[in-house]
Structures are given as C-alpha cells and as structure tokens.
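Is this the right way to post structure tokens for a design question? Let me know if I should format differently. Anyway, here goes:
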C-alpha cells in the first residue's frame, strides 16, 4: 500500500509520445530469438528455390507471414506508445518500476507504479536504480479507467545509448520525481503488481 504525505493532488500524467520508427535490421540485431526463428523458416524458402520445389517455397512463405505480422505489431506499438519514466529496482530477479496513469479521457488522474519482472538486455552492465527506456500503452479496464499498462523495453528496437538517452530525456522531470518518491513507499521485497501512487491502496 502506498500512502502519500502530500496534500496537493498529483499532476495528470502527460507522457511523451515515443513515435519510434522501428528499423527491421535493428530489430533483428536486438532480438536474436526472433532472428533465429526467422532464419530457420526462411531456409524452407531457400531450399524450395534451390530444388525447384514450388510447394516448398509456398509453404515457406506461409510460415514467414506470422513473423511479419509480429514485427508489424511491434512497430505499431512503438509508434503509438508513449515514453514512461521507469527504473531498475531489482536485479535478482530482474524487475523494473514504471510510472503511469490509468485514467481515461479527462477524468481525475489515477497515477500508478507498475512493478514487473523483465529480461534486461546486457544485464551484466545494468545496475539497480538505472533509468531504463520503456514505451507503454494503457489497456483494459472500464469506461472510467484502464486496468494495466502494456509495455515494452525500448532496447528491443533501439540501438545505441545516444538514442536511448534522447528517449529518456523526452520524459518530464516531474515524472521521474514522482517515480522516485513513490518507490520509497512500495513494500519490500518487491512484488509484481499495480500500486496506487500518491493515493492510499494497492490496485492489484
């Protein structure tokens, strides 16, 4: 349960639109499992061409279609999603905390901290307290509020620290401050869930 000592209302979350255009080559380099799966499926197409087997080529193309759809969904997510303040809060297991808002339309803000396990890239270089690039979209819920944040690590599509720094710097300073303040009040050890920030209660 998070309780706030502040009397002032929290500002409404105004996350920065990420608008990240996903480059296919960068995506393949950053997602080795996807690339390996894509390569294995592509071998069927190559084999069909080499052995002049049209049915094999057609079968290979058909099994490549789900991979293309998956890539397009990721690309659409990063274009439509918004950058959120997030930090690494634990390395064993790997966990992050994300600051977000589950309010819909112009209703009163409902700021939350989402604690979730993740697979951090380059975990040997990651440290507790590091800021991490996260793009998220609020989903589910009813007419008044969303019930969760669907998020992805920006590192799955972004290469180079300079680009990640640009994403992190696009997030308002007050969001980082609210995240830091709320983290002091989340119970330890950390458990996955959605915690109300600045309000009394744990949402789930």
């Amino acid at each position: 349960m998070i309780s706030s000592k502040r009397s002032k209302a929290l500002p409404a979350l105004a996350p920065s639109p990420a608008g990240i255009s996903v480059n296919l080559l960068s995506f393949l380099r950053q997602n080795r499992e996807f690339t390996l799966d894509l390569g294995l499926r592509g071998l069927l197409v190559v084999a069909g061409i080499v052995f002049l087997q049209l049915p094999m080529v057609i079968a290979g193309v058909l099994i490549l279609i789900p991979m293309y759809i998956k890539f397009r969904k990721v690309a659409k997510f990063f274009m439509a999603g918004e950058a959120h303040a997030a930090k690494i809060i634990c390395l064993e297991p790997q966990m992050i905390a994300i600051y977000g808002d589950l309010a819909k339309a112009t209703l009163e803000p409902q700021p939350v901290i989402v604690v979730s396990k993740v697979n951090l890239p380059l975990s040997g270089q990651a440290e507790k307290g590091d800021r991490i690039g996260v793009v998220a979209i609020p989903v589910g819920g009813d007419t008044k509020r969303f019930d969760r944040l669907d998020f992805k690590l920006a590192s799955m599509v972004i290469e180079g620290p300079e680009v990640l720094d640009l994403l992190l710097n696009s997030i308002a300073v007050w969001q980082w401050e609210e995240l830091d303040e709320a983290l002091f009040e989340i119970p330890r050890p950390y458990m996955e869930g959605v915690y109300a920030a600045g309000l009394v209660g744990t949402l789930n």
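Format looks fine. Someone answered above. Worth noting: The radius of gyration is 20 Å. The helical segments are 24-30, 32-50, 54-80, 161-169, 173-183.
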